[in-house]
Design goal:
heterodimer, A: mainly alpha, 10 helices, B: mainly alpha
Chain lengths: ~210, ~180
């Protein structure tokens, strides 16, 4: 997808530039932007190192596991079909905590493990279960406690207060999560497009889960 | 709204304090751990550099050619209806598709309007409060070969729209 967007942006830009008589400025902008990208990366480098360093301390000292235990009850509400002591529930919790702490490098492998475990519990292997949809929707919303990259960009651009956006980000994240979770909960009942699995539908609503775990 | 700024300022110090104090009570060598983890930061940053160059060039030429003005002009009826600066529309469109693309747009906006302008702040909040929807869906469902994703895309896009509107609302309240 990005393939076409990127190509279209450049082709459209030079076409428009030709019509507007701005070829020179546009070429200059291409060179300037390439330099700006490197400058920005260097500006980000320090803050990113600081961040991944601190987060490594959190990970290695077992803080991630402690928080995971604390948020386990949430799993029962979000994923009623998943037994709370299953490996799937464990992986989901760890993925959530890694996301909250901004451990990007750890979150994705944990998420892949979680979805693999969910697939084992899934009855129709080419169709997403309710739990899988919920899990991916939560991952597409952001749970980050500290938006480190944005703060780094703001700091390197010379903001008077790079941190002032933290609470607004929390607010926006929570709204996004509430709507995402509600939408997933509502659509799994009403907008159900499970093809040819009418008997499975009741299981997807969490009522016949017993048969699945046997 | 002073309280929001206060909490924002205290969030990072509190987190650093808790993490390091917890590390010490668990008898972890926090300094070695930090240095070890900081290496990942270099790797992460260098990994995004090539896509960032590509995307920032695309956005740079798109802006300089005047094409961006045409897009924002075409979308201005929608943005005036919800009272949103049209400059952030490209970010709203790019955010669900590409993380580094959105990052490139944010840094372009911050460079052009300043990090402490309304546009700069709104772009920061929008960037911080959602993930790359389509990428996430593709990676997770692709890894277990799910073909029918059912309501995932609808729910995720609804959440993305909420994110844009919520960011706009809170920025108006706090920084307006």
């Amino acid at each position: 997808m990005l393939n076409y967007i990127w190509a279209a942006m450049i082709l459209i830009a030079f076409t428009v530039a030709a019509f507007m008589g701005r070829i020179e400025q546009t070429t200059q902008a291409a060179l300037d932007s390439a330099g700006a990208a490197v400058e920005m990366s260097i500006g980000l480098l320090g803050v990113m190192c600081l961040w991944t360093g601190i987060m490594n301390v959190a990970e290695k000292s077992g803080l991630v596991n402690k928080i995971s235990k604390a948020i386990r009850p949430v799993i029962r509400f979000l994923f009623p079909e998943i037994p709370s002591d299953s490996p799937a529930a464990g992986a989901i919790v760890l993925n959530m905590v890694a996301n909250i702490l901004g451990l990007g490098n750890a979150a994705t492998p944990l998420g892949l493990k979680a979805i693999k475990e969910l697939q084992k519990l899934n009855r129709y292997k080419d169709t997403a279960s309710n739990a899988m949809c919920m899990f991916v929707v939560i991952n597409t919303a952001s749970l980050q406690l500290i938006p480190a990259t944005v703060i780094a960009i703001r700091a390197s651009a010379g903001s008077a207060n790079p941190f002032e956006i933290i609470v607004p980000v929390w607010f926006s994240c929570i709204c996004t999560l509430i709507v995402g979770i509600s939408a997933a909960k509502v659509l799994q009942k009403t907008g159900n497009n499970l093809k040819g699995c009418s008997s499975g539908r009741r299981y997807y609503n969490g009522q016949r889960r017993w048969f699945l775990w046997k | 709204m002073e309280i929001i700024k206060l909490v924002s300022n205290f969030a990072i110090p509190c987190m650093f304090f808790c993490i390091i104090a917890h590390g010490l009570t668990e008898k972890v060598n926090v300094y070695d751990c930090f240095v070890d983890g900081a290496k990942d930061g270099i790797e992460t940053t260098l990994r995004v550099l090539p896509p960032l160059v590509g995307l920032m060039v695309a956005i740079g030429v798109f802006r300089a050619s005047g094409a961006l003005d045409l897009v924002t002009y075409a979308l201005s009826p929608i943005t005036t209806a919800i009272n949103m600066p049209p400059e952030v529309i490209p970010l709203a469109l790019m955010r669900p598709i590409s993380g580094s693309g959105a990052l490139a747009i944010v840094s372009d906006l911050i460079k052009n309007y300043g990090p402490d302008s309304f546009i700069g702040r709104l772009a920061s909040v929008m960037m911080g409060s959602t993930e790359t929807t389509f990428y996430t869906i593709a990676v997770y469902f692709g890894s277990v070969r799910i073909k029918n994703v059912r309501h995932t895309v609808r729910a995720a896009l609804l959440a993305d729209i909420t994110c844009i509107l919520a960011s706009l609302w809170i920025c108006k309240k706090v920084f307006g």
